[in-house]
């Protein structure tokens, strides 16, 4: 059976070459799916090489957002099944079963998709109000919204395959826009978007992880007092600002350890720790293993 038509991010290619050289395809068994972002498009035609069921009974480690651009697909089977058509979006969380295929009476099903590991402040945007068997559903009601979402998916895909140093970071920013658009269009959404100043604080921290930013610096950047910033941040994000920044640093360190051969002391500096021993202590406290052990276990 031929492989689905996909395009992989640079990180996915690197991880595949290092750990799974025999399996570069994220839609077939054996692909590690340990990159932060993978995007592509699958064209399924009736009786074609790609006309088979995707079956992942244990779900995945990350999220997948799926966007039908032509034809129809069938999600699940039997009494649990439902159809998707052009303009329909699906959000598969990590714990959701994946079972889908071309709808039996449709001649094709073309869908764009993005697999991703979310940033810490995205989680409220990933829990869509309309869910079936944990899978979120959203339908676009007009041509303008369809073209806007199609453009966002294409932009994410282009950025992940650009080969540029900040390509994945740019793709994550575009994915953030896409998720915000979904939240805006969710008709019965009970979620609350982050205060724009807290969102900007998250961006500012993420873009300056290796810098020794003080809380005063971040507060000044978003035009809030230190006390107001710390109160709002904890209230809306669910953890302290310092804890959240540490989460982001460890997350980036994991990615660098997985995808590069960078020495540990360089990884430490890239994520804001000048003292390698202190970095290793924090990393072990958060993950249970040392940076070296983590790299060797991947």
From TrEMBL:
The keyword Ion transport does not apply. InterPro entries: AraC-bd, Homeodomain-like_sf, HTH-like, HTH_AraC, HTH_AraC-typ_CS, Tscrpt_reg_AraC-type_HTH. Keywords: Activator, DNA-binding, Transcription, Transcription regulation. Signal peptide: none annotated. Residues 199-297 form the HTH araC/xylS-type domain. One of its GO terms (molecular function) is sequence-specific DNA binding. The keyword DNA-binding applies. PANTHER family: ARABINOSE OPERON REGULATORY PROTEIN, ARAC-FAMILY TRANSCRIPTIONAL REGULATOR. NCBIfam families: PRK10572.1. This is Arabinose operon transcriptional regulator AraC. The gene is araC.
């Amino acid at each position: 059976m031929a492989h689905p038509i996909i395009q992989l991010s640079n990180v996915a290619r690197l991880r595949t070459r290092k750990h799974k050289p025999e399996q570069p395809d994220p839609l077939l068994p054996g692909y590690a799916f340990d990159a932060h972002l993978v995007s592509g498009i699958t064209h399924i035609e009736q009786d074609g090489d790609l006309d088979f069921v995707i079956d992942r009974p244990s779900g995945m480690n990350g999220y997948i957002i799926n966007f039908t651009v032509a034809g129809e697909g069938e999600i699940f089977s039997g009494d649990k099944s439902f159809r998707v058509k052009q303009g329909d979006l699906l959000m598969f969380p990590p714990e959701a079963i994946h079972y889908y295929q071309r709808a039996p009476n449709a001649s094709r099903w073309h869908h764009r998709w993005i697999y991703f590991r979310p940033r810490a402040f995205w989680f409220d945007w990933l829990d869509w109000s309309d869910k079936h068997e944990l899978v979120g559903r959203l339908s676009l009601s007009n041509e303008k919204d369809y073209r806007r979402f199609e453009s966002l998916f294409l932009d994410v895909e282009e950025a992940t395959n650009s080969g540029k140093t900040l390509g994945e970071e740019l793709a994550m920013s575009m994915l953030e826009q896409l998720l915000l658009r979904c939240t805006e269009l969710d008709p019965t959404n009970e979620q609350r978007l982050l205060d724009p100043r807290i969102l900007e604080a998250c961006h500012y921290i993420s873009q300056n992880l290796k810098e020794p930013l003080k809380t005063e610096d971040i507060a000044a950047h978003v035009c809030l007092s230190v006390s107001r910033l710390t109160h709002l941040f904890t209230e809306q994000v669910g953890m302290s600002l310092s804890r959240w920044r540490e989460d982001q640093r460890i997350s980036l360190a994991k990615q660098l350890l997985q995808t590069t051969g960078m020495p540990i002391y360089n990884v430490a500096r890239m994520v804001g720790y000048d003292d390698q021993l202190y970095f290793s202590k924090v990393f072990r406290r958060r993950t249970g293993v040392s940076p070296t052990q983590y790299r060797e276990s991947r």
